[in-house]
Amino acid sequence: MEDVARTRRRLGDLEVFAIGFGAMTLTQVPGYDAARGVRVVHAALEAGITLFDTADVYGPTNGYGVNETALVEALRSWPGSLDDVVIATKGGHTRLEHDTWWIDGSAAHLRRACTDSLRRLGLDVLPLYQHHRPDPRRPYAESMQALRELYDEGLVRRVGISNASCDQIREAAAILGEALVSVQNELSPVAPCAMDEIVLCQELGLAFLAWGPLGGMRSAKGLGATGPARGFAEVAGARGVSPQRVALAWELARSPVVIPIPGASRPESVRDSVAATELVLSAEELALLDQAVG
Predict the structure, then answer these.
(1) How many angstroms separate the first and last alpha carbons of the chain?
(2) pTM of this prediction exceeds 0.85
């Protein structure tokens, strides 16, 4: 597999650090530790991370904006410069009674969600606004046209889509044009089947933001202990690094458009993720890992 850029990747007209930060872990559990979340965000900034991914529905309650608020407060408390920081948020999910998640891709909901996110984040324009998930109750084009209108009105600077199929990526590109810069889909050693979408992103000049790159919040700590991802533990043991670092290095090597966005609850985890940009896997190691995930 050809060598790829290790530390910087394209996001539309921007260049961001090759590893992003998935902010969901900051607030997703009840009784989350706000102070620890601040330390983790500061560790990410110190390590050079520039892309921070959140969403209006992330949080332990059925309300909106918990995660966005926690992230922006942590960022604002950083004593250094935030000039290179890109906040990416999402709209299109809802949180109903009893903490039920559902989907609303209507133009009215997306507009309301966008303006609410702008207010919570204290921004005049959202750097990257992502459609969280296709709404099965309405045509995909309806949601994409709504995002195009937000872009044309200057409320969002760039548009992304998430959890999209190849057909939906093509449809979004046709409607959104230059506004579309990214696709955020799942990619990890336990969910490796995203190559068709990655190849399409390469063809269209889109970044592929890999969510859940360590297998999800509940599985990340034990990555490689069991199942098809055991090959990652084997490579990690031989290299003297963590299986998580190997997983991120493997994802970076799949394509120069891939930007993994792992979450973290400890500064040490952030630093380990960032170190994946320095881990160049051999062709033999990559072949072993590809075989391990099937």
Answers:
(1) 17
(2) yes
What pLDDT, on the 0 to 100 scale, is given for residue 5? 58
* Residues 90, 150: Cα–Cα separation, whole Å: 13
112: its two tokens: 């309301």
DSSP string spanning 64-86?
SSHHHHHHHHHHHT-SS--TT-E
Residue 196 vs residues 62, 66, 164, 253: alpha-carbon distances, Å: 35, 34, 11, 15
Residue with tokens 């230059």: 178
**Degrees, nearest 5: CA angle 6-8-13:** 150
| Predicted local confidence at residue 95, as pLDDT | 81
Dump pLDDT digits (tens) for 161-186. 999 999 999 999 999 999 999 999 99
pLDDT single digits (tens) 72-95: 999 999 999 999 999 999 999 998
Q: How confident is the model at residue 217 (pLDDT cuts 50, 70, 90)?
A: low
Rounded Cα–Cα distance for residues 27 and 33 (Å)? 8
Q: 21 by DSSP, 3-state: which?
A: strand
- Asked if 64 is an active-site residue, the reply is no
Residue 218 has which token pair? 């509940």
Tell me if 53 sits within 8 A of 262, measured CB to CB: no
Structural domain spans, the chain? 8-220+254-266
The confidence band for 63, taking pLDDT boundaries of 50, 70 and 90, is confident
CB 91 within 8 Å of CB 133: no
Give me the catalytic one of 58, 129, 140, 151.
58
Three-class SS state of 87: strand
Q: Where are the beta strands (DSSP E) in 12-110?
A: 14-17, 21-22, 51-53, 86-91, 93-95, 101-103
Pull the structure tokens for residue 131. Answer: 């459609």
- CATH topology assigned to domain 8-220+254-266: TIM Barrel (3.20.20)
